[in-house]
Amino acid sequence: MEKIERIKSEEMIGRIDSRLVKNKVVKSIFFAATVFTSIILIVLLVRILTQGAPYLSWDFLQNFASRRPEQAGIKAAVIGTVWMMSVVIPTAAILGVGTAIYLEEYAKKNAITRWIQMNISNLAGVPSVVFGLLGLTIFVRLFGFGNSVLAAGFTMALLVLPVVIVASQEAIRAVPSELKEASYGLGATKWQTIFRVVLPYAIPGIATGSILAFSRAIGETAPLIVIGIPTFVAFLPSDVFDSFTALPMQIYNWTSRPQIEFHNLAAAGIIILLGVLIVMNSVAVWIRNRYQSR
Amino acid sequence: MKTTKKELSPVQQLLEKKYNGGFLNRSERIIPIVLFFMAAVSVLTTLGIVLTLIFETIIFFGEVSIVEFFTAAEWYPFSETEAVYGIWPLVLGTLKITLIASAFAVPIGLAVALYLSEYASRRTRKVMKPILEVLAGVPTIVYGFFALTFVTPVLRDLFPSIELFNAISPGIVVGIMIIPTIVSLSEDALSSVPEPVRHGALAMGATKWETASKVIFPAALSGILASIVLGVSRAIGETMIVSIAAGSTPSAALELTSSLQTMTSYIVQVTTGDAGFGTTIYYSIYAVGFTLFIFTLSMNVLAQFISKRFREEY
């Protein structure tokens, strides 16, 4: 009798051991996957830095595109991206925040509102190349903007609009209702409350989400290709109706050439692009941390 | 007597307010209407996308038979005399890339999500979150460059039979691109399973793995499936990585080592070339775009359906 008991407990200890071993094995596999993911990022960044850094120079920033890699520069692309963003940021910010205020503060909770909301989340899932087709048909052809700063800017603004809307909605929703009630209690009207109480409180949240959306617009390439933004540009745009080129277009052009020198130039261009994105993201994180604590 | 604003009686103040009320009332009425029109822009965008695709696709089908589009096994639009428009090779190209990407990203993504939500210390999570955010923020043009100049050469060193343009390298890199989507949404689903459920399983003597695999994972399944479907949808719509690293040969062959073309990279090829406005080739990008739109839209609707229909409520 006693013997049987002992065997049973030994068996159980054996089983426990194997279960614990299994747990440990699985844990180390998961850990390995996590480390692997980080290594991918490190490899990607190191590759691009080692390949592109030797090509970064003052001349690279100052020169226009060229057939000779040693003379090629990125000036037109950097300035072009700045021009494009000067259309994207105001357009997307005004439309995004306006839509968010409407949905959060004014819209009745009915079928139409739900439909608009569903529509926005579906829009966020539409591939960027399809937005390019929209831009090509509406802005380039129908409105006759051609492959201008304005056509690209509007297309990109529509592309990032859903992200700006959702971020702004969340920020507006997070405003404590006590603040609004206090404002109404003092006799403020609805719009006065929204403009002077809700928006100032929500702006850090809106800014954080919107900056992330805008950084997506800077790196997005496919819509620019589809609306026909040229890559070989040796001039700067003088107004929003001018033709231009943008950073990702220039990188794409250099990447698709067979010569290794152009690939190195592409890497140098990518360093500039990633640098801009890192600065924007740091600003977003800084705003988030600065205002989160209150 | 000098009356400053401060010394107005309450009644006078009210009267003054009424006088100003004309302006106030008007703006209070106009502002919601202006805001409504702003909200209408995103609805108009959807409408614009759908109508654009439909109208231009109808013109395309005026020139090319719809039967040919769905049944021909060849996509050969650049021939002067014998152009063939069968969508299948492009769909197959997209499927190849999506399949490789999911095969790469789903196991890794789920492993990372499980590690972060069930095993990792607070510190590890604090390190990993920004890494995943950076991975998610890397523009696809950069991933495309990485695929062509790093992953492809490495693969060709290992397996010399792989050609310069192939399905494997862009497939893997598209997988890298969707890992953050899968991890962050799955991890949200896993960590939204309440702590008491976890404690209950552990208190019954289950190991962490048993808790994770038999209790937490099934409870979070709807969110996890939705994250995978959304990842797949992004892989289908991914453009730059495949345009750069997969080549531009529409192929109906079932192999992965040579050049192919996806729906997205066809649109890029046509719009970078000089196919003139109004040609059949020009309209064909809308037919392809429409097909692509149907694919991604049904994936997104499926993801929404899964996360609504199978959600475990606590």
Brief overview:
Chain A has 294 residues and is mainly α. Chain A has helices at 2-52, 58-62, 75-106, 111-123, 128-142, 149-173, 177-185, 190-219, 222-226, 247-255, 260-292. Helices cover 77% and strands 0% of the residues of chain A.
What does this structure look like?
Chain A is mainly α. Chain A has two domains: 2-55; 59-292, Orthogonal Bundle (MetI-like fold), CATH 1.10.3720. In chain A, 77% of the residues lie in helices and 0% in strands. Chain A has helices at 2-52, 58-62, 75-106, 111-123, 128-142, 149-173, 177-185, 190-219, 222-226, 247-255, 260-292. In chain A, helix 7 packs antiparallel against helix 8. The model of chain A has no long low-confidence stretch (mean pLDDT 90). Chain B has 314 residues and is mostly helical. Chain B folds into two domains: 5-63; 86-309, Orthogonal Bundle (MetI-like fold), CATH 1.10.3720. Chain B has twelve helices and two strands. Chain B has helices at 10-63, 66-71, 88-119, 122-137, 140-158, 168-191, 195-203, 208-219, 221-237, 240-245, 263-272, 280-309; strands at 75-76, 84-85. Chain B has a two-stranded antiparallel ribbon with strand order 1-2. In chain B, a hairpin with a 7-residue loop joins strand 1 (75-76) and strand 2. The longest helix of chain B has 54 residues, at 10-63.
